[in-house]
Amino acid sequence: xxxxxxxxxxxxxxxxxxxxxxIESALITGEALIEGGLPVLEIxxxxxxxxxxxxxxxxxxxxxxxxxTVLSPEQLAAAIDAGASFAVSPGVTPRLIEAAVxxxxxxxxxxxxxSEAMALTELGLTHFKFFPAEALGGTKHLASLASPLPHxxxxxxxxxxxxxxxxxxxxxxxxCVGGSWxxxxxxxxxxxxxxxxxxxxxxxxxxxxASFG
Length: 213
Ligand code: 3PG
Prior knowledge:
The chain is of the alpha/beta class. It has helices spanning about 5-10, 25-35, 50-55, 75-80, 95-105, 115-120, 140-145, 165-170, 185-190, 195-205; strands at about 15-20, 40-45, 65-70, 85-90, 105-110, 125-130, 155, 175-180. Strands 7-6-5-4-3-2-1-8 form an eight-stranded parallel β-sheet. Helix 2 crosses helix 3 (about 50-55) and helix 2 (about 25-35) packs parallel to helix 10. The model has no long low-confidence stretch (mean pLDDT about 95). It binds 3-phosphoglyceric acid.
């Protein structure tokens, strides 16, 4: 059975945001992240190889592979066709949200304000990417939304690091965080599986707030 977005964001405290240039380094990176305890992978549609990487990595045992940087209904359709289990976008457009709701794909649209989150909850969505998290004012901004919007859960992304991730994960309305720090570009390029696994292991051990166990 397909997992809901609520189930997907509860699997691990960190979703690696991946920019992958070729299948070989993608496989090494994906396997290293899963080995380290981060099986939910967001492959951004920013490279010519992205869709093929989604296709190949989706077949890895235990992997839950989604498409990131989905900017249009056409990209959403292509990602689903490639086997993406979920989709993430930095923001939303009326066309994109309509396509995502119609496709019933687990979807993490990006929001930056209370109004954007409220508009999307009217369509039945409850989980959002909070983007760009650090630039929007950091944990203080998101903590302020917990009391007025108690039913909403966020995955802050953008500027999250090994150092600040635990502060975000301590918030009661944060289900997980997203970030590229667990698979840095140079480590992917150098196919440095050991470094990626070690970064993933550290990230997978991060604690979430009590509401997420
Ligand atoms: C992105 O879409 O690039 C993500 O927000 C990742 O941001 P980061 O590189 O700051 O983790």
